From TrEMBL:
The chain crosses the membrane at residues 6-30. This is DUF2510 domain-containing protein. The lineage of its organism: Bacteria, Bacillati, Actinomycetota, Actinomycetes, Mycobacteriales. It comes from [Mycobacterium] nativiensis. The keyword Transmembrane applies. Keywords: Membrane, Transmembrane, Transmembrane helix. Residues 46-75 form the DUF2510 domain.
């Protein structure tokens, strides 16, 4: 049976704590890096169409509608 010296046991615990901290830091940075950049609209209005950058799509305040218009169309059309 192997007996551990108190110094070796302390060093092992410190190494495990450092390793856990590194893993937690990597997970945190990965979550920050993959956060969506666009905000979801909350007000009913015309917004850039997520599927076609040349169109605007109407958001009714709850969901995207089928209504679209050209990006260069004047407001109110």
């Amino acid at each position: 049976m192997t007996t551990y010296d108190l110094g070796v046991l302390t060093a092992d615990i410190v190494m495990l704590a450092l390793l856990a901290g590194v893993v937690a830091g990597i997970v945190f940075l990965a979550k920050v890096a993959f956060k969506p950049t666009g905000l979801s609209p909350t007000d009913a209005d015309w917004y850039p169409d997520p599927d076609n950058p040349e169109l605007l799509r109407y958001f009714d305040g709850e969901s995207w509608t089928e209504a679209t218009r050209p990006l260069a169309a004047p407001p109110g059309s």
